[in-house]
Amino acid sequence: MSDTVIQVENLAKKYVLDHQQEGNSSYKSLRESISVGAKSLGKKFLNPSSKQTANSAHEEFWALKDVSFEIKQGDRVGIIGRNGAGKSTLLKVLSRITQPTSGSIRIKGRVASLLEVGTGFHPELTGRENIFLNGAILGMSRVEIQRKFDEIVAFAEVEKFLDTPVKRYSSGMYVRLAFAVAAYLEPEILIVDEVLAVGDSNFQKKCLGKMENVASEGRTVLFVSHSMETVTRLCNTAVLLKNGSVQTSGAADKVISAYLKSDFGTTARRSWQDLSRAPGNDVVRLLEVKVHREDGEVTDSFDITKPIGITMNYEVLKDKKMFTHSMNLFNESGAHILSSHDIVSELRKKPRTKGSYSSTMWIPGNFLAEGSIIISVAVLEQDPFVIHFHELDAVSFNVIDPMNGDSARGEYVLGFPGIVRPILDWNTAKIN
Q: Of 36, 110, 242, 377, whose CB is crowded by the most CB atoms within 10 A?
């Protein structure tokens, strides 16, 4: 079809992973490495059929497998799935940063990509020079780039650092400029990974607004995000990946609903065994999030009339810090139901000592509506304001109305709209 701008057929990407064996140290000197390589080469020369298995093992890992889909001009496509599903690899292949192992890709139009912090710019060149370099790579003339130059600089808010090499930029400055270049140099296709999370909340809102403008102009946007609210707001279609394969694609709301209701969406409990890989930083790390009943039983299904507890466990790694806690709830369509900050517990006012902590938020019965609920959790400092971690889509659960007359629907059994469903006080009286 003439309006198809990206066509992917049977795309696959394989990586070969090397594993050290026989208790070898992870560190080797250059001399040892050269010696091992020379011995290996000698053995292969003397016996070409021999296999190198003494000290290492090779494992094939398919980051993408049999991926096929089409994207039309003007589509705003959300690429969703759990960590490790293949989302970032797919964007790298579409951006021609990584070569596929097999399959075919047909792309019509200029592509601008904003993926990992550190890609796309030459670190030794200044911000000004990188703007012109990126424009040239996109095939734009110097006059075209100059016409957009002031808008790029204003959006990125880096006027004072234009003639500074970008290697001296903070990650936030880098992302601001990289996004402005990608969005304003008018590519037909804009590809954005969730690198925008590096920026502050105001800049993220600016970026989302700009991507909406890009899409409204008939250009195509591909966007990877863990935030279903953002995908719902920005995208009209979505592709769901699991273990490198497409599980479903189509209208964004239906794909998001399938993701959240499936066994590979979020669950009622998540934990991080390896502290170094857990969400957070050198001050505090998230250990576990769980949804449970009053008796402590973890479950992903709750009677609409019963209280729901959400607990986060975390490890404080530095003394004398004061924290508070935050949780956000979203429904399966991405609507933001509520945001709750801990303003009541006494411990939030006291400097912490190192150790493990637990914080629980209770949602009363007869408050949430039926459906799937997604939770994000955060630990933050208020003065100065610092977010130590904000884990999006951390856990989820389902609210079920048994329809026994005890909920806000009473005896009504048909569809009941609204994102919350409290039983409120009513007074009815005859006035004459």
A: 377
Angle value at C-alpha 219, between 330 and 194, nearest 5 degrees: 40
Tokens 């629980």 locate to 360
The Cα–Cα gap between 102 and 93 comes to 11
* CB proximity list for 346: less than 8 A, separation 6 or greater: none
Average pLDDT over residues 109-122: 75
pLDDT > 90 in the chain, percent:
39
Cα–Cα distance for residue pair 325/343, rounded to 1 Å: 9
Residues 244, 238 contacting (CB under 8 angstroms): no
* Cα→Cα distances 285→98, 282, 289, 310, Å: 33, 8, 12, 17
pLDDT of residue 47: 54
136 has pLDDT over 90: no
Which CATH superfamily is 269-400 part of?
abc- transporter (atp binding component) like domain (2.70.50.60)
Question: Do the Cβ atoms of 201 and 56 come closer than 8 Å?
Answer: no
Domain map (residue ranges) of the chain: 62-261, 269-400
Q: Which helix (H) or strand (E) holds 241?
A: strand 237-242
CATH 3.40.50.300 is held by the domain 62-261: yes
- Closest by alpha carbon to 358, among 255, 288, 262? 288
pLDDT at 341: 93
Question: What's the confidence (pLDDT) of residue 180?
Answer: 85
Q: What is the tens place of the pLDDT at every residue in 377-387?
A: 999 988 788 89
pTM comes to 0.60
